[in-house]
Design a protein that fits this description.
By secondary structure, the chain is mainly α. Helix content is 64%, strand content 5%. A 5-stranded mixed β-sheet has the order 3-4-5-6-7, sandwiched between helices. A two-stranded antiparallel sheet has the order 1-2. The termini are far apart.
């Protein structure tokens, strides 16, 4: 695996500066995501280190910063919760199985990259992506309400929070609410000039923590991170049970797909800023290796992070040295983080994660989707609803299915207009003067069946409709000159039309069938029904042949055929 194209030291100052800045931004997010996931803050830190280092080392986007992200954390929160619930007597087994899911997700990402599926991962309608991401943002916001108010998170995800919301408000911890509100206020109100120098997440983390120690240090009801394990991580062995293996594989595929989408969309943003074209498949392999290692080390899964990547580039980074620098700085923090992080209040981390959830919401499309496309807007809101209240996989599956069906319908309607069966000159078909004369000379006994554009399966109805409209003719010319692609369904419909014409004694001439289209007709056995001279290259040649056939065919032959 080549890494020399992405790591060099010609931009060392910019790369180190970018890496240091990205590490400062990553620290509070890693802690917040670790706590939000249920695996603990150290899992967020290990994830930031492992994913960041190995994705930079083996990935295909030099300036990409990879770390635990809001969407990945939301998915892992559900996975940890469901697997732990399946082992109520020993929740640690469920957590271990969750890390196994992360390993499997990494393996799937490596497989996606090896089989060069990168270019297909993001072939998803924007309305579906927008609804999915906004739904994840809503989930992340709801999951922070309980710790934001100083309460323990109720079971049942978003539905559990909604159901228990009156109790959460009734039992609010004023101190926690003040600290959480202060954190969100800092994140929203920090002036842009200061944001360019110091990340507002770090200001909130340090500033509100200091305030909590000074004024609320003796509050026993205020939950803090406490001492976290320092030093190198304890390696996680793959853990699974036969009864849960199917669920784990499905979760791993979902996690891998989400990581791929998140990463490749961020890589596109990186390309637009650096004018460098990322290598999708190499990036997926790098992300897979990173998540595999992160799972083994007990870290959260990660993906390309937009905020960290943009800041990294804006501060001068141009190579993967920046990502490696960031990971090594965070590793130093992990190795000695106990004294630094133990006093951080949980509401502060909840406030940081809540702001991430708000930022994930696709406000730009949410506020104007109904103006752009009513159908697209309905799909987006439908996916958002299903993501929040049903299931992530169901949401994406239903959204992609409906969006593709609507797209296929539009394309089919457009393509159907290019399917024409004519027996005299038609202004909608670009015929040369000589071709028009030949067709008119046929006196209605020559039928030109003209197709153009990609013959997808939705066009088969139009082909059948035009074919059924055929009445009296002696020769059918099937013009495929302007057909670049012919799907299986359309091919079978054309085969049926040709066979029926032959059975009724009509002569069939095919024009312009070459390459894969000709091969498909051969495989269907269509060409064996026709004389070799009836497979021609040019339409005029076909019309000349047809006119000759008509002249040598008695006019009343149709009376015996029909």
């Amino acid at each position: 695996m080549q890494i020399t194209n992405y790591i060099h030291f010609r931009n060392l100052r910019g790369d180190i500066f970018g890496g240091v800045t990205a590490a400062i931004i990553s620290l509070p997010l890693a802690l917040a995501f670790g706590v939000a996931s249920g695996a603990g803050p150290v899992a967020g830190l290990y994830g930031a280190v492992c994913v960041g280092f190995f994705a930079a080392l083996f990935g295909g986007t030099p300036t990409l910063i990879s770390e635990p992200t809001g969407p990945m954390t939301v998915v892992m929160t559900g996975i940890f919760a469901s697997l732990s619930a399946s082992h109520p007597d020993n929740p640690e087994i469920g957590i271990a199985m969750g890390f196994t899911v992360i390993m499997l997700a990494g393996v799937f990402q490596i497989i996606f990259g090896i089989f060069k599926l990168g270019k297909y991962i993001t072939l998803m309608p924007y309305s579906v992506i927008s609804g999915f991401m906004s739904g994840i943002g809503v989930i992340l916001i709801f999951l922070q309400i309980a710790p934001f108010l100083g309460q323990s998170s109720p079971k049942g995800g978003v539905i559990g929070v909604v159901t228990n919301l009156p109790d959460l408000i009734a039992n609010i911890n004023p101190t926690a609410a003040i600290l959480g509100g202060s954190t969100v206020a800092v994140l929203f109100l920090t002036p842009k000039k200061i944001k360019k120098v110091v990340p507002p997440q770090l200001i909130a983390l340090v500033g509100v923590t200091i305030i909590s120690v000074m004024f609320f240090g003796n509050d026993p009801n205020l939950k803090r991170i406490g001492v976290i394990e320092t030093g190198l991580p304890t390696l996680q062995m793959p853990t699974f049970t036969l009864s849960q293996i199917t669920v784990m594989l499905v979760d791993a595929v979902m996690l891998a797909m989400l990581g791929c989408i998140d990463t490749l969309l961020t890589a596109v943003i990186s390309d637009s800023l650096t004018r460098y074209e990322h290598k999708s498949d190499k990036e997926l392999i790098g992300q897979g290796v990173a998540n595999l290692v992160s799972g083994i080390c007990g870290g959260l899964p990660g993906a390309g992070a937009t905020m960290g990547t943009v800041v990294n580039i804006q501060t001068g980074a141009r190579t993967a040295v920046s990502g490696l620098t960031r990971a090594l700085i965070l590793l130093v923090v992990v190795l000695g983080a106990a004294g630094i992080t133990q006093s951080i209040p949980m509401p502060v981390l909840a406030g940081i994660a809540l702001k991430v959830g708000i930022d994930i919401l696709d406000w730009s499309f949410l506020t104007r989707s109904h103006k752009v496309s009513l159908k697209g807007s309905l799909i987006m809101y439908g996916v958002l609803f299903l993501t929040v209240f049903v299931d992530l996989i169901v949401a994406v599956g239903v959204g992609v299915f409906i969006a593709n069906i609507l797209t296929i319908e539009r394309l089919s309607n457009m393509q159907s207009q290019t399917v024409k069966a004519i027996s005299d000159a038609d202004d909608n078909i670009d015929l040369s003067p000589a071709e028009k004369d030949l067709l008119d000379e046929g006196n209605g006994r020559i039928l030109l069946f003209y197709l153009s554009g990609a013959m997808i399966f939705g066009v088969s109805k139009a082909i059948s409709r035009e074919h059924n409209a055929i009445k009296d003719c002696d020769v059918v010319i099937l013009d495929l000159s302007d057909v670049p692609m012919m799907g299986v369904t359309a091919s079978l419909t054309i085969e049926s039309a040709i066979r029926e014409a032959c059975e009724k004694g009509r002569q069939v001439i095919i024009v312009g069938a070459a390459g894969k289209i000709k091969k498909r007709l051969e495989n269907l056995g269509v060409l064996s029904l026709l004389p070799p001279q009836h497979l021609v290259t040019h339409r005029q040649e076909a019309l000349e042949q047809a006119l000759e056939i008509v002249k040598n065919t008695p006019q009343d032959i149709n009376a015996s055929v029909y």
